[in-house]
Amino acid sequence: MCHQPGAWSRKSAVVQAISIDRGVEPAGLQRGRPSLLAVGTIVWLGSELMFFSGLFASYFTIRAHNVGIWPPPSTPLGFKDTVQSGAFTWVLLMSSVTMQKAYWNEEHGLRRAARWWVALSLAMGGAFLANQIVEWFSLGFTPHANAFASLFFLMTGLHGLHVTIGLVAMAGLLGRMVGPGGDPGELPVFQSITFYWHFVDVVWIALYACLFLLK
Fold this sequence. Notes:
By secondary structure, the chain is mainly alpha-helical. Helix content is 76%, strand content 0%. It is elongated. The N terminus is likely disordered.
């Protein structure tokens, strides 16, 4: 049976149009550009950025009005604390690299490798969070000691909450990736979680610089 010229191309265009209308884009169309879910995540992260910007503004305002030593002598953050937090800062940064590697593998259909890299990112993020908890209980001051102590626990605590949310999202993603084949919405979810994790890492770099290095 003969086909009219261009019939196959018209059929492909119709299939793609139906797929997009149903909210399921072909894998090739998803590559190289953010999904609608990822765009929504970026907009939401913009509001989170403004939230943390308010915290940083409060920190520097209080610091500017402090006439003594900053941090105050009653809230010492010694060399050991700075080095230990710096080491786990590096761990968190590397988890961002491994998460990006996981997304790259997922985008190219290497789901088994992607699962492995997500699991590694989850473990590294968990190690960072565990260090934060240990550090909280090992510090020689409480949130009520002074303004710096209050800001320290508030800012690191809120960041730790965001890290926890990211780890829960990664664990859910691993559960979704069980099985040989993925569903059409898996890649956009993967992309959104990756964007979120990069945001968490960037915020911590700024926090570490303010709380541990700028003395």
